[in-house]
Amino acid sequence: MKTVMWFEHLRTWCLAGVLLTLAVGPANAEDVREITWADLVPASTFEDPFEALTSDQLYRLDTIYRTREMIRSDAVDLTDEMMERAEKLEWELNQQEIDVDELLGRVEEIAEQLRRNSFAVVEELDGANIRMPGYVLPLEFDGNKVTEFFLVPYVGACMHAPVPPPNQMVHVSFTPGLETGGLYDPVWISGIMSTEAKTSAFGFSDGDLDLPTSYTMDANEVTSYE
Predict the structure, then answer these.
(1) 30-44+123-224 belongs to which homologous superfamily?
(2) C-alpha distances in Å from residue 49, one per residue of 34, 99, 100, 215
(3) Pairing between β-strand 215-224 and β-strand 170-178 as defined by DSSP bridges
(4) Which of 65, 116, 122, 145 is at 20 to 30 A from 45, Cα to Cα?
(5) Nearest alpha-carbon partner for 23 in 158, 220, 186
(6) pLDDT at 207 over 90
(7) 178 has which bridge partners?
């Protein structure tokens, strides 16, 4: 079961793409559509009740949640101090008119909705000629050139920062290959976008992890962001 803190991380992932303030200039050709990362996220009517909470309130909810889970699993002997702390935090949240029981009772439902939203795509982008900015995370090489990579919205994604949700990553194939200057250099990519989901292995220090993407692109041009 996901904890409340997971929601905060997921929102951070989503917001990071929106907060990548790479300017968008005029298109190079009439049939090319320039987009930002926010354009990859479809409109949603889902209201996340955790979104209005502060980091401190989320932390308190998470502590209460974990305490209740330990009680249910009977896997850990809780001390009186731990029980009293959880009760105190719950009382404080209730004083702030936060219904702890109602929120924690919806954790699984909300987690599933957020998961679905993280995979959702903008269908009108399927087959569109797209130009967009981002950062390169190499997947495959031909010699010293990158021929497949993740395009991600912020520096250090998957490396030193959380993995973006699937609809905030694009799996890019670029047959000519790219001589990347480094992970911190933004690029423009151009090509035909697809809403075909794809899962690719990405190497971490402790092994490979299969990462899903909601979008793919066969790029016909990759240039430095200027």
Answers:
(1) Protein of unknown function (DUF3299) (2.40.50.870)
(2) 33, 11, 11, 28
(3) parallel
(4) 65
(5) 186
(6) no
(7) 146
DSSP per position, 161-175 = BPPPPGGG-EEEEEE
Distance between CA atoms of 108 and 110, rounded to whole angstroms? 6
Q: CA 184 to CA 181: how far, in whole Å?
A: 8
Return phi, psi of residue 200, to 5°.
-135, 145
> 64-116, pLDDT tens digit by residue?
999 999 988 877 788 999 999 999 999 999 999 999 999 999 999 999 999 99
Distance CA 101, CA 105 (A): 6
The residue extents of the domains of the chain are 30-44+123-224, 55-105
Could you tell me the two tokens for 195?
């809403």
Q: CA-to-CA distance for 145 and 130, rounded, in angstroms?
A: 23
**What is the distance between the alpha carbons of residues 148 and 216, in angstroms, rounded to a whole number?**
11
Query: φ, ψ for residue 185 (rounded to 5)?
Result: -100, 115
pLDDT, tens digit, for every residue of 14-57? 434 433 333 333 334 458 999 999 999 999 888 899 999 999 99
Question: 197 near 119, Cβ under 8 Å?
Answer: yes
The single residue listed with the structure tokens 């209730």 is 94
Is 26:86 a contact under the CB 8 Å cutoff? Answer: no
Locate 167 and state its tokens. 């609809």
